[in-house]
Amino acid sequence: MTDVAAPVIAFRGVGVTYRKGPVWNRTEVPAVGAVDLEIAAGETLGLVGESGSGKTTLGRVALGLIRPSRGEFLIEGRPFDPAIRREGALSVVLQHPEWALNPRLRCGVSVAEPLTIRGDLDRQARRQRVASMLERVGLDPGFAERYPGDLSGGQRQRMAIARALITEPRFIVFDEAVSALDVSVQAQILNLIRELQAEHRFAAIFISHDLAATRYISHRIAVMLKGDIVEVAPARTFYDMPAHDYSRALYATIR
Amino acid sequence: MIALASARLGRFFRRDSLGLLGAVLLLVLLILGIFGDLLPLGDPNAIGAGPRLGAPSLAFPLGTDDLGRSYLPRVVEGIGVTFLLSAIAVIITAVIGTLLGMAAGYLHGATDHLIARIADILFAFPALLFGLLAAAVIGPGSIAAIVVISTATIPLFIRVVRSVTLSVAEREFVVAAVVSGASTWRVMLVHLLPNILGAAIIQLTYALSVSMIIESALSFLGLGVQPPAASLGSLLRLGSVYLTIAPWLVLAPGLVLAAAIMSINLLGDAIRDALDPLRGRSLK
Amino acid sequence: MRLIYFLAPRLLIAAITMFGVALLVFLSLRLIPGGYADIVLGPFATGAARDLLIQRYGLDEPIFVQFGKWLWALLQGDFGNSMVTNKPVIDEFLRRAPVTGELAILTLLLALAIGLPLGVWSGLAEGGAGGKGRLGRLVGALGASVPDFVIGSAFIFIFSKWSLGLKVGGFVPLDQGLWDNLKTMILPTVSLSVFAIALFLRTTRDAVLRVMTDGHILAAVARGQRPRDIVRHHVLRNAAIPVVTVTATYFGFLLGGAVIAEVLFSIPGVGYYIFSSLEERDYAVVQAGVLLAAFVFVSLNMVADFAYALIDPRIGAARSGT
Amino acid sequence: MTAAVDIRDFVVAYETGGGAVFALDGIDLAIGAGETLGIVGESGSGKSTLGMAIGRLLAPNARIDAGDILVAGCSVTTSDDETVRRLRRERLGFVFQNPMSALDPTMRIGRQVALAMEGTPDTAAVERLLVRAGLDEPGRVARSFPHELSGGMAQRVVIALAIARNPQILIADEPTASLDASIRDRILDLLFAMRAETGASLVILSHDLRMIVHRCERVIVMYGGRIVEMGESQAVFGSPAHPYTRALIRAAAGNEAPGEQLDPIPGVPPVLRAPSADCAFAPRCAHAAERCRRERPAERAVGGSRVACHFAEEIMAASGTAREVAE
Predict the structure, then answer these.
(1) Residue A172 neighbours by CB under 8 Å, 6+ apart
(2) Of A94, B141, C200, C277, which is the most exposed, with the fewest CB atoms less than 10 Å away?
(3) Regarding beta strands D36-41 and D218-223, do their DSSP bridges make them parallel or antiparallel, or are they unpaired?
(4) How far apart are CA B19 and CA D154, in angstroms?
(5) With an 8 Å Cβ cutoff, is D213 touching chain A?
(6) Residue C80 pLDDT > 90, yes or no?
(7) Is C8–A21 a contact, with Cβ atoms under 8 angstroms apart?
(8) D touches which chains (3+ CB pairs under 8 A)?
(9) For every residue of D165-189, which 3-state class applies, written as one string?
(10) How does it sit in the membrane (chain B) (predicted)?
């Protein structure tokens, strides 16, 4: 179901190396070796691996928060530059609901923030856009006036998703977006992401140590081990017998 | 946003009597300090209004000074001067300290190191000795006092704000703002500043109490407020000449000064417990 | 190995800080009203004599050259000569240092002896039920509110009216009998230590409270360890770092010469000397005094940094990667 | 034989800024000696409060409103501090979620383990205990500080600390939640091996129903501060009798077949402001009827399990067709 149009997102030989230790004996720590990946519009690529596998680092490269030491990261064929952010082409949903929204701002203001930064809509249009987006993520538009402190974890994460979608981005990074939620609420958010992707056709990376959730939400899954991708395959194969033995061992834990 | 904090504070004061004591004491002193001259306390400058070095009496509740002036209105005026000077110094500290602290905490790299070194250098000067140097350079007076107070309180302010900024900057909503293209200024003013105000306010109250101590110490050494103006510290200085024969000239301003600093310390503790409650646990 | 990783940069930072302090002090003296030159040469030097003197003191050289020479002299312990006695300033400071040192050590010991136990008790009490902890907070707030010169004045008044065996003022050096010396040091020490006790009490109380919320304390309680052992083994050490910081900072302040206590009780210490020099416009002494105090302060902070690394093994440990 | 832990009608509330919040709303439970019991519940279900209450380790703002807990016949709520302390030392062992925060960062591991053991053990005894906990370089581990260990190794040390005095009851609160998947199984193997070796009862608190059912003999499902279903693991998982248990199984990712849609539980977890007079799950329950919103369901025996639901029989019948557990 993923069309074969130009990939929205492309990693071309992307590698990241951290420098560590005091000035006189710098040591190089390769966080990401060399990654080649492409993600088409409307497609979610799952990125799984244990802590230290480099999956979060790769996510940060995709958000422009880290510059790759090697290779290139392209959005719609263009190398990353800050202007892309202001257009609202890119957004992120992160792990901890209690810090997803600025506790001192009303939720409506936080959700509208990407629009305010892009600055092409007036206040009334922004307010209207927020109201419809809240409804779309299953929240009463009246919640726009509330402070994050008054919402449950699941509701705050829905707000974060509303904010991520408000500028119709081309690409969203979900970094452990459901890991801190309870099982019953997790399913709500996973289904919501699926529906919204079908409707908005954004490309997405779903980073998580939760193999079951990743398998459910992703079209394809990349398994990372110590900075390298050991296997990329459609999610379906992870329901029975993935090829690489590390993937097999990993998925055996949720058999 | 302020409503959120004040509601919590209101609820808190009902439970914490110490905080309430501090707040009431501070309010009384502020009213005296600001509206003192409107109150019927006598004319602070009327020389010979009473006997020289007269003991406290009904006519002169705090006695009279070496020129026979009623001491009560002079002390009340002293409260005003002390608070005003300390407040000016602390506001300067708060503004500079918050901006530099936020910049250091959020921008990392060279900015962080530069600001940290500036803080270290200012921190290395013991307040009173720096006061002597400042008095030598710009001459004793209110300006010198303000410079000394700010120099003594800014480093700690920068360190506190920097450490809070470091933790707030890692929060998800800041990362999200950056990803959606927010400029550095916007991140600092819209996202960081409101979330570090709590820690800044707590540090402000402690800076205010330290500032009143330094101001009165400088004035006591004759380096702070210069005559005819008189802060509590200067009154202490003038009074100490007659310490053994007219002790009220020293004890009155001394006690009032202690009460003022105490009220701020109690208020600071209460605010800190309201905004950042440290409920330990029993070891039983 | 870990300590060297941690301390080497600290040493560099301390050097940079001291350089900054020296630069600030050097420049500030250049801003003295009436021009530094007039002060050094004295207001009466005129015409040719003045030019000759300017030549000799090198005041016409570019400012950074003067600074270079001044700094170089400083590094060799030459803090310049007093403008009044024209003798090296450093000798006078070394002569008076033991007096200020004694006052500082006495005050610090008294403050630690009372402030720390009270702070630990107040932190533990606040942790448990009941308002006992609030007493600690009240004492802390009270102590921190009464400046030392107010207490000092009160002592002078009381002890001069009814001299209860303690002499006010008139310092007796240590070598002329311990008890006589102590008799003159008790009052300044106590008036200084009231604030110090409050400072240590509040710092320790907050540190203990913060440690009590740590997970490993709950784990120790869950293992049924005796409260006494939990405090001894776990609480004290984890609460030590903020206490070490405040000890080093406050001791640095005291070693800079508690100006007011020395002036009030006429203790011939470093602080008194700098203050009286200011009145005689002997700026060389003021300059040297501030530099020495700052130098002591920075080195004490270095000692504190070293103590952190000993107390908390995480400090200075190489940070792990991603 | 007397139960290792006997909990009767236990109610706990927390004093918060915004009034009282009830964490436990009447718990009745007996934990048998040597039993492996899993307590499943989401955040706010009260499972951690229950686990901590067994050792009277509740937060300062907790208030025990009713009921009692007897550990080896001794009341945890009314006994004096010294008795409870000895109880914790000799009978109870706790394993916490985050191993790094359960160890003193400023003290070497060997010393911390020695402090937890009986009397003053020598290094050989300490290293023996570390080996028992599955650490293959006991000497190096004993000399290192907590921050120098990996998550898995640190949790092994925490387990060693918990079994140092051969407790009768081991309580593990989300023991593997903060660990990587591959280490998780090995840590659980260790926990169950320690239980078998010492004959202690093991209580595991977790949000992971599959893991609990897979490993524990008996399972308890908690919701809104109450036990909603309790019974033999396979029975409860195979044919759940409470709507919440059934919905939990259907909502959890990992049970579904490829391409099958997950069935989320609508609404948000409850916050109890007072003991509930109705069924706390009613607002989110597909089978809720008028009776559920009026009458608090009593806990009763239904087909080998104990369930707190008025319509347990119908649910069990309907769920009989629930997916078989892929063994």
Answers:
(1) A90, A91, A92, A93, A164, A165, A202, A203, A204, A205
(2) B141
(3) parallel
(4) 43
(5) no
(6) no
(7) no
(8) A, B, C
(9) CCCCEEEEECCCCCCCHHHHHHHHH
(10) Multi-pass membrane protein
HEC assignment per residue over C36-78: HHHHHHCCCCCHHHHHHHHHHHCCCCCHHHHHHHHHHHHHCCC
Residue A88 in tokens: 């609202």
How do the domains of chain C map onto residue ranges? Answer: 2-75, 95-312
pTM of the model: 0.87
Is the minimum CB–CB distance between A95 and chain C shorter than 8 Å?
no
Residue D23 has a pLDDT of 93
User: In this prediction, what percent of chain A has a pLDDT beyond 70?
Assistant: 96
**The tokens of D12 are what?**
């706990």
User: Quick one: residue A12, left, alpha or beta (phi over 0 = left, psi -120 to 50 = alpha)?
Assistant: beta
Q: Looking at residue B188, which CATH number applies to its domain?
A: 1.10.3720.10
ipTM (interface pTM): 0.86
Other beta carbons within 10 Å of A240: 8
Which tens digits make up the pLDDT trace of A36-46? 999 999 999 99
**Maximum C-alpha span of chain A:** 58
Whether the pLDDT of residue B25 is over 50: the answer is yes
pLDDT 10s digits, A155-209: 999 999 999 999 999 999 999 999 888 888 889 999 999 999 999 999 999 999 8
Which CATH number applies to C95-312? 1.10.3720.10
Maximum alpha-carbon separation in chain C: 87
Number of H helices, E strands in chain D: 12, 12
- Residue A87 binned pLDDT confidence (cut-offs 50, 70, 90): confident
Instruction: Answer for the pair D147, D100: CB distance below 8 angstroms, yes or no.
Output: yes
Q: What residue in A sits closest to D181 (Cα-Cα)?
A: A253
Q: What is the DSSP letter of D7?
A: E
Shortest Cα–Cα distance, D69 to chain C (Å) = 16
Q: How far is D57 from chain A (nearest CA, A)?
A: 24
| H-state helical runs in chain B | 2-15, 17-35, 71-107, 109-124, 127-138, 142-169, 172-179, 184-186, 193-220, 232-240, 248-275
- Say if the Cβ atoms of A185 and D262 lie within 8 Å: no
Q: Is A32 helix (H, G, I), strand (E, B) or coil?
A: strand
Tally of domains within chain B: 1
Among the ranges given (C2-11, D239-248, D287-296), the one the predictor scored with the smallest mean pLDDT: C2-11
pLDDT above 70 (res B188): yes
Q: Is A164 helix (H, G, I), strand (E, B) or coil?
A: helix
Residue B99 lies in a domain: yes
Contact C216 D88 (CB under 8 A): no
Extents of the domains making up chain A = 98-168
Q: Is residue B28 part of a domain?
A: no
Alpha-carbon A71 to chain mean position: 21
Burial class for B225, CB neighbours closer than 10 Å (0-12, 13-18, 19+): buried
What is the number of other CB atoms lying within 10 angstroms of the CB of residue B239? 23
Nearest to B276 by CA among B208, B194, B204, B201: B201
Residue of B nearest to D60 (CA): B281
Confidence bin at C225 (pLDDT 50/70/90): very high
Does A209 contact chain D (CB < 8 Å)? yes
Determine the Cα angle at C222 with ends C217 and C224, to 5°. 100
Domain that holds residue B184: 81-277
- Cross-sheet strand order for the sheet of D74-75: D19-31, D5-16, D62-71, D74-75
pLDDT tens-digit series, residues C284-313: 888 888 888 999 999 999 899 888 888 888
Sole residue written with tokens 């140092």: D164
Would the pLDDT of A104 be above 60? yes
Please, what are the domains in chain D? 3-106+145-256+265-276 (3.40.50.300)
Q: Do D85 and B279 touch (CB under 8 A)?
A: no
